[in-house]
Design brief:
Elements: E1 4-7, H1 17-26, E2 32-37, H2 49-58, E3 63-68, H3 76-79, E4 86-89, H4 97-106, E5 110-115, E6 133-137, H5 154-165, E7 171-175, H6 183-189, E8 193-196, H7 208-218
Parallel strand pairs: 1-8, 2-3, 3-4, 4-5, 5-6, 6-7, 7-8
Length: 219
Protein backbone atom coordinates (compact mmCIF):
# COMPACT_ATOMS: atom_id res chain seq x y z
CA UNK A 1 0.00 0.00 0.00
CA UNK A 2 1.33 3.43 -0.97
CA UNK A 3 2.29 5.62 2.01
CA UNK A 4 0.21 8.70 2.69
CA UNK A 5 1.76 12.16 2.50
CA UNK A 6 1.43 14.97 5.06
CA UNK A 7 3.38 18.13 4.12
CA UNK A 8 4.69 20.13 7.07
CA UNK A 9 2.92 23.46 6.66
CA UNK A 10 5.44 25.33 8.82
CA UNK A 11 7.78 24.88 5.83
CA UNK A 12 5.31 26.25 3.25
CA UNK A 13 5.59 29.62 1.52
CA UNK A 14 3.23 31.74 3.61
CA UNK A 15 3.32 34.54 1.02
CA UNK A 16 1.94 32.22 -1.64
CA UNK A 17 -0.10 29.79 0.42
CA UNK A 18 -3.00 29.44 -2.02
CA UNK A 19 -0.62 28.25 -4.72
CA UNK A 20 0.86 25.72 -2.32
CA UNK A 21 -2.59 24.39 -1.45
CA UNK A 22 -3.65 24.27 -5.10
CA UNK A 23 -0.70 22.02 -5.92
CA UNK A 24 -1.45 19.80 -2.91
CA UNK A 25 -5.05 19.44 -4.07
CA UNK A 26 -3.87 18.57 -7.59
CA UNK A 27 -1.62 15.81 -6.26
CA UNK A 28 -4.34 14.54 -3.91
CA UNK A 29 -2.24 15.04 -0.78
CA UNK A 30 -3.67 13.04 2.15
CA UNK A 31 -3.12 15.39 5.13
CA UNK A 32 -1.74 18.83 5.96
CA UNK A 33 0.63 18.60 8.93
CA UNK A 34 0.14 21.53 11.32
CA UNK A 35 2.99 21.94 13.81
CA UNK A 36 1.66 23.79 16.85
CA UNK A 37 4.39 24.86 19.30
CA UNK A 38 3.95 26.85 22.50
CA UNK A 39 7.51 28.02 23.21
CA UNK A 40 7.38 25.99 26.43
CA UNK A 41 7.45 22.28 25.65
CA UNK A 42 9.74 23.17 22.73
CA UNK A 43 11.74 26.41 22.32
CA UNK A 44 9.83 27.61 19.30
CA UNK A 45 6.47 29.14 18.38
CA UNK A 46 4.53 28.04 15.31
CA UNK A 47 1.07 27.64 13.80
CA UNK A 48 -2.09 28.60 15.69
CA UNK A 49 -5.79 27.97 15.25
CA UNK A 50 -6.38 31.06 13.07
CA UNK A 51 -3.83 29.83 10.53
CA UNK A 52 -5.45 26.38 10.58
CA UNK A 53 -8.92 27.85 10.07
CA UNK A 54 -7.70 29.91 7.12
CA UNK A 55 -6.19 26.84 5.48
CA UNK A 56 -9.34 24.78 6.16
CA UNK A 57 -11.55 27.49 4.64
CA UNK A 58 -9.66 27.18 1.34
CA UNK A 59 -8.69 23.49 1.20
CA UNK A 60 -10.64 20.34 1.96
CA UNK A 61 -7.50 18.31 2.73
CA UNK A 62 -7.80 16.94 6.30
CA UNK A 63 -5.64 18.60 8.94
CA UNK A 64 -3.02 16.65 10.85
CA UNK A 65 -2.34 18.66 14.02
CA UNK A 66 0.88 17.99 15.92
CA UNK A 67 0.69 19.78 19.26
CA UNK A 68 4.12 20.22 20.83
CA UNK A 69 2.70 21.91 23.92
CA UNK A 70 2.47 21.55 27.66
CA UNK A 71 -0.93 20.49 29.00
CA UNK A 72 -2.60 19.66 25.67
CA UNK A 73 -6.03 19.45 27.34
CA UNK A 74 -6.13 23.27 27.24
CA UNK A 75 -6.13 23.15 23.44
CA UNK A 76 -8.55 20.32 22.66
CA UNK A 77 -11.70 22.43 22.30
CA UNK A 78 -9.82 25.18 20.44
CA UNK A 79 -8.35 22.95 17.74
CA UNK A 80 -11.26 20.53 17.58
CA UNK A 81 -13.40 23.32 16.17
CA UNK A 82 -12.28 21.81 12.85
CA UNK A 83 -14.00 18.43 13.14
CA UNK A 84 -12.44 15.28 11.75
CA UNK A 85 -8.87 16.51 12.09
CA UNK A 86 -6.14 14.32 13.50
CA UNK A 87 -4.97 15.61 16.89
CA UNK A 88 -1.52 14.41 17.93
CA UNK A 89 -0.12 15.16 21.37
CA UNK A 90 2.91 13.99 23.34
CA UNK A 91 1.50 11.75 26.10
CA UNK A 92 4.19 12.69 28.62
CA UNK A 93 2.80 16.27 28.55
CA UNK A 94 -0.61 15.15 29.84
CA UNK A 95 -1.22 14.14 33.44
CA UNK A 96 -4.07 11.90 32.28
CA UNK A 97 -3.40 10.89 28.65
CA UNK A 98 -6.32 8.46 28.47
CA UNK A 99 -8.65 11.30 29.46
CA UNK A 100 -6.99 13.51 26.84
CA UNK A 101 -7.58 10.86 24.17
CA UNK A 102 -11.22 10.51 25.20
CA UNK A 103 -11.66 14.29 25.14
CA UNK A 104 -10.20 14.58 21.63
CA UNK A 105 -12.59 11.93 20.32
CA UNK A 106 -15.57 13.42 22.19
CA UNK A 107 -14.84 16.78 20.59
CA UNK A 108 -14.97 15.37 17.07
CA UNK A 109 -11.31 14.80 16.22
CA UNK A 110 -9.17 11.69 15.77
CA UNK A 111 -6.70 11.10 18.64
CA UNK A 112 -3.04 10.40 17.99
CA UNK A 113 0.13 10.30 20.09
CA UNK A 114 3.70 11.29 19.23
CA UNK A 115 6.67 9.35 20.58
CA UNK A 116 9.95 11.24 20.97
CA UNK A 117 13.30 9.60 20.15
CA UNK A 118 14.16 9.29 23.86
CA UNK A 119 11.05 7.25 24.75
CA UNK A 120 10.56 3.53 24.03
CA UNK A 121 7.38 2.24 22.40
CA UNK A 122 6.81 0.05 25.45
CA UNK A 123 6.23 3.09 27.66
CA UNK A 124 3.05 3.92 25.70
CA UNK A 125 1.96 0.39 24.75
CA UNK A 126 -1.26 0.67 26.76
CA UNK A 127 -2.35 3.74 24.74
CA UNK A 128 -1.89 2.22 21.28
CA UNK A 129 -5.31 0.53 21.08
CA UNK A 130 -6.98 3.86 21.90
CA UNK A 131 -5.61 6.03 19.09
CA UNK A 132 -6.03 6.43 15.33
CA UNK A 133 -2.39 7.30 14.65
CA UNK A 134 1.06 7.06 16.23
CA UNK A 135 3.65 9.63 15.15
CA UNK A 136 7.24 8.41 15.48
CA UNK A 137 9.62 11.33 15.92
CA UNK A 138 12.95 10.67 14.24
CA UNK A 139 14.33 14.04 15.37
CA UNK A 140 13.80 15.91 18.62
CA UNK A 141 10.64 18.04 18.35
CA UNK A 142 10.81 21.79 17.82
CA UNK A 143 12.62 22.69 14.59
CA UNK A 144 12.69 21.89 10.88
CA UNK A 145 15.92 20.83 9.19
CA UNK A 146 17.38 18.58 11.90
CA UNK A 147 19.50 15.47 11.34
CA UNK A 148 17.98 12.01 11.59
CA UNK A 149 18.34 10.08 14.85
CA UNK A 150 18.88 6.63 13.29
CA UNK A 151 17.78 4.38 16.17
CA UNK A 152 14.33 6.01 16.17
CA UNK A 153 13.57 4.45 12.77
CA UNK A 154 13.48 1.00 14.42
CA UNK A 155 10.32 2.04 16.27
CA UNK A 156 8.43 1.98 12.98
CA UNK A 157 9.07 -1.76 12.71
CA UNK A 158 8.22 -2.29 16.38
CA UNK A 159 4.89 -0.55 15.86
CA UNK A 160 4.10 -2.56 12.73
CA UNK A 161 4.75 -5.80 14.60
CA UNK A 162 2.62 -4.71 17.58
CA UNK A 163 -0.16 -3.55 15.28
CA UNK A 164 -0.32 -6.86 13.38
CA UNK A 165 0.00 -9.01 16.49
CA UNK A 166 -2.89 -7.21 18.19
CA UNK A 167 -5.03 -6.66 15.07
CA UNK A 168 -5.03 -2.87 15.47
CA UNK A 169 -5.68 -0.25 12.80
CA UNK A 170 -3.79 2.91 13.86
CA UNK A 171 -1.72 4.62 11.16
CA UNK A 172 2.04 4.85 11.66
CA UNK A 173 3.42 8.29 10.87
CA UNK A 174 7.07 9.32 10.72
CA UNK A 175 8.18 12.90 11.38
CA UNK A 176 11.75 14.17 11.22
CA UNK A 177 14.26 14.40 8.34
CA UNK A 178 11.95 12.52 5.99
CA UNK A 179 14.41 13.12 3.17
CA UNK A 180 14.89 11.66 -0.30
CA UNK A 181 17.63 9.50 1.17
CA UNK A 182 15.66 8.36 4.25
CA UNK A 183 12.18 7.81 2.78
CA UNK A 184 12.86 4.34 1.30
CA UNK A 185 14.30 3.12 4.62
CA UNK A 186 11.38 4.57 6.57
CA UNK A 187 8.77 3.03 4.30
CA UNK A 188 10.52 -0.34 4.40
CA UNK A 189 10.61 -0.10 8.21
CA UNK A 190 6.85 0.41 8.37
CA UNK A 191 6.00 4.11 7.91
CA UNK A 192 2.49 4.62 6.51
CA UNK A 193 2.29 8.43 6.66
CA UNK A 194 5.26 10.63 5.71
CA UNK A 195 5.60 14.13 7.20
CA UNK A 196 7.60 15.80 4.45
CA UNK A 197 9.37 19.12 4.87
CA UNK A 198 12.57 20.97 4.00
CA UNK A 199 14.59 17.82 3.34
CA UNK A 200 12.30 16.75 0.49
CA UNK A 201 9.31 18.54 -1.05
CA UNK A 202 9.95 22.07 0.23
CA UNK A 203 13.03 22.59 -1.91
CA UNK A 204 14.46 26.03 -2.62
CA UNK A 205 15.72 24.96 -6.04
CA UNK A 206 12.78 22.97 -7.46
CA UNK A 207 9.10 23.77 -7.89
CA UNK A 208 6.53 22.10 -5.67
CA UNK A 209 5.20 20.17 -8.66
CA UNK A 210 8.67 18.86 -9.42
CA UNK A 211 9.30 17.70 -5.86
CA UNK A 212 5.86 16.11 -5.47
CA UNK A 213 6.29 14.24 -8.75
CA UNK A 214 9.64 13.01 -7.51
CA UNK A 215 8.12 11.97 -4.18
CA UNK A 216 5.32 9.92 -5.74
CA UNK A 217 7.76 8.22 -8.09
CA UNK A 218 9.94 7.35 -5.10
CA UNK A 219 7.14 5.82 -3.02
Amino acid sequence: MKPKVSPSMMCANFLDLKSELDVFEKYKIDYLHMDVMDGNYVPNFTLGIDFCKSVASYSKIPLDYHLMVENPDRFVEIFCQLKGSLFTFHPETSRHPVRTIDSIRANGCRPSIAINPAYPIEQFRHLLPLVDMVCVMTVNPGYAGQKLIPFAVNKLTELQEFKKKNNLSFEIEVDGNVSWENIPTMVKAGAEVLVVGTSSIFSKTESREQTLSRLYQLI
